[in-house]
Amino acid sequence: MSTTAENKAGFGSVLWDYLTTVDHKKIAILYLIGGLFFFILGGLQAMLIRIQLIAPDNEFISAQFYNEVLTMHGTTMIFLAAMPLIFALMNAVLPLQIGARDVAFPFINSLGFWLFFFGGIFLNVSWFAGGAPDVGWTAYAPLSLFSESHGVDYYAIGLQIAGFGTLMGGINFIVTVVNMRAPGMTYMRMPLFTWTSFIASVLILFAFPALTVGLFLLTFDRLFGGNFFDPEMGGNVIIWEHLFWIFGHPEVYILILPAFGVFSEIIPTFSKKRLFGYSSMVFATILIAFLGFMVWAHHMFTVGLGPIANSIFAVATMAIAVPTGIKIFNWLFTMWGGNIRLTSPMVIALGFVPTFTIGGMTGVMLASAAADFQYHDTYFVVAHFHYVIVGGTVLGIFAGIIYWWPKMFGTMLNEKLNHWFFWLFFIGFHLTFFFQHFLGLMGMPRRYWKFLPDQGLDLFNLISTIGAFGMAIGTIIFLVNVVMTQMKGEKVSGDPWDARTLEWAIPSPPPFYNFKQEPLVRGLDALWVEKMQGNGKIQPAEPLGDIHMPNRTFVPFVISLGLFIAGFGVMYQGAMWILAGIGFATTFGAMLYRSLKDDIGYHVHKEELEEEGDGSNG
Amino acid sequence: MKGWMTRFKAVMALTVMALILSGCGEPFLSTLQPRGEGAAMLLELIILSTVIMLFVFVVVMAIYIYVIIKFRQKKGQEDFIPKQTEGSHALETLWTVIPIILLLILAVPTVQYTFAFADVNTPEVSEEGEELDQIWIDVTGKQYWWHFEYEGLDVTTSQEIYIPTDRRVYLSMISDDVIHSFWVPSIQGKMDVNPTGNRNEMWLQADEEGVYWGKCAELCGPSHSLMDFKVIAVSPGEFEEWVEDMQGVTGEEEPETATAQAGQEIYEENCLSCHAVGSSPNKVGPNLTNFADRDKLAGVFDMTEENLFEWIDTKGEEMKPGNLMVDAPYDLNEEEINQVIEYLMTLSPSDVTPESADNGVYIDSDLSDLFPEEEEDADEESEEDDEVDEDEETDEETDENDEE
């Protein structure tokens, strides 16, 4: 079972290993590969959009294809790139940070990944089956009902499958944090990344059901004559908007909170200081999550909800700026008086602070309901949410990947290339999106296939496209770095950054059981406490004993594959119903098998563990 | 309403924000160069929020730059372990309370303005203290064009909406298919046009005459980006003239030339079932009553005969992808199309055209002639009319001022 043995194994056995793994660290790698794949795909779509908009009245791609590309760019980036990459970090780090041997439900964890994977593939099959969804990632009815190709069906069913996976992942992490913390790891000693992931998981639990319901209604409207959103039949199109944004707004906090967590780990580590105002950071996180559920209608200021609703949602939205501001100042004051090392994760964190501040500023401007009558659905909004999602979430993800890369793979990404990646990506990003604020104010609505000449929009669009190429080149450098680093395979120690939290107390990559003995946590920043007050090693909370581990299983893959197949049957109907039969039979059969078969896992025995060193970061 | 802003005039004067912003974009399209009451109010709000937010940004960046320069690791300090500060209640309270205050400063005008924009029921009052008649226009959004019916005036038009300057007109909006959004950046913010049966209402007001570009701001299909329209703001007197001219059109006027007459016949056989001429409830396709006066063809193309020929010939298939005219059953040869074009180019019932918005002529009117049902007191009405007539004359003479 050791990693060296696997390295020597053939491709087939490695593949089988990953197809059947329930180890959170390997699932993290699966999420990382899946997320990066879709990130590249979404990035290529973004490049098509920017090339189309490089000049006025451009005919580079057709109007129909443009709408498909813009829809798939948004959908892919949110659901298939940002979410899984965040799950990659959560899987890789969260159990280690709380001193757990795995997540609470390893089987569900694996199922969550495979559902996401098959959902994502399902959605992208649409490209080859008559056209991708073409109605925007928001899929507003009734446009989504009128869309003629099967694209929107692929959207509804694909996201439904992927959404199940996300929901399961969220529940899993909630239970993990509640139940699996090591002795001494009280809630108020949890690292901020664990806290924000925990809160994000709670958000997933409450937000995703709204999406599930919305997608079900949409599926029934399109495939079974449901008429929930069809105004001709007495349906109401606004209900979709509410359902979508009741999910959609918390979703942006699901994306950003773990990124906040990443930076709350990186900044203390590289400032050599504990996080300033830890408890107010936790409180701010919870407050953001709470308020995040009462602001969804700020996406709908122009719908005509009336001034009372608009005012309430405007003020509630502005309120979110307060806890977010607390976070920004706490980060700044963590650095204040510190000993700042400008490593690449830290430089990304430093790039994040002003970028996200600008995103937050435009967020408050957008919250002003009346002013939003001008901003809404223009490039101002496009600029705003790219500042928070790219400037916040994506920078957070990349900083997290670089920071935890040694923990995940035992190797260190080349620092020089990391810096190159960051600066190209960062400058490209600001070139791309800063000027889009002005494009919006100058009268350019979003989702425009073409802008016309002589409207004063040419220059900023050109600059924006040039910037996009900078981001693309930066990303390529990152990927080259990944490949080169893994080819070289130079191993590093368990604690290469001189960090503070528990995951750095064990080897890199950690053994499959993580902690040989359950660790005893003696304070916030558990490893730092031991570095300052002890011998730099985490004290065990139990004597060495047998470790209970879950068995590997192929069942999650089969369950997900069944739903994937069933999706086609439900969509194409007629003779294809047979596929639905086969698919659902596969899924439910696999679930039945899982329920009936008693799988009690296995034990790693004390004697084997004794041979393998002391389990510290050595 | 303006009280809030005057208090901030001092702050704003200190900033060059407004100056920088006003250099942005084209005056017929940019929200930063408002030409109407709505856009002007919204720009005030935009500037207020920008100034507050820039203040926050400056504070953050000042601390940020200081911290990076001051506390960056120096040579020989690699092992230095700083004091592990837990936090500071005083500081944390400070950066909680100050943002709350800043947000309240923004929240109050936001709520005020939000209510001000939603108010479509209080009629405007003239300088003499009399309530002005409300001009209501029914707006219908369709893939990918706009239809306008002037309530009580028996005027129908499409794509280009005429409004009088210096008073509000009120819009009652609904969609016939998917959700659209009605946006004229330089005079008013946008509002969605929903198909559900709940009409959205808003007002428009232009301070200056001009041809303002309107945009659809909600993704509505392949030609979403080509669903432009125009708001043609003309002086009230010109507007009155336009309405009267439009009211006179029945669609049965015979054009002068023989080709155009032939074109009219072809038109009646092939086009009329969708494209009405004259006031008509028919809105299958755009109303063409004043087609020859249009500023743009189909919202975005130059009004040339070549473009028009291509449109009729190809049914706009390539020009506006996804447009519903491609299903029209007609089949015309080149000669017939040219005859139709000649007929269409005679559809110019009024001397008030988009050019009237730029010619500097300003004719005043209180438009009360357009609403004869309110003749409660005939004497007063006629007196007013006289005054108006005088105004018209004097205004035309002293119009050099407006020509800048």
Report on the structure:
Chain B: Belongs to the cytochrome c oxidase subunit 2 family. Chain B: This is Cytochrome c oxidase subunit 2. The complex is a heterodimer of chains A (618) and B (404). Chain A is mainly alpha-helical. Chain A has a single domain (19-553, 599-611), classed as Up-down Bundle (Cytochrome C Oxidase, Chain A). Chain A is built from 20 helices and 2 strands. Chain B has a 5-stranded mixed β-sheet. A 5-stranded mixed β-sheet of chain B has the order 4-10-9-6-7. In chain B, a hairpin with a 4-residue loop joins strand 2 (145-150) and strand 3. At the A-B interface, helix 4, helix 9, helix 10, helix 11 and helix 12 of A face helix 3, helix 4, strand 7 and strand 9 of B.
What is this structure, in a nutshell?
The complex is a heterodimer of chains A (618) and B (404). By secondary structure, chain A is mainly alpha-helical.
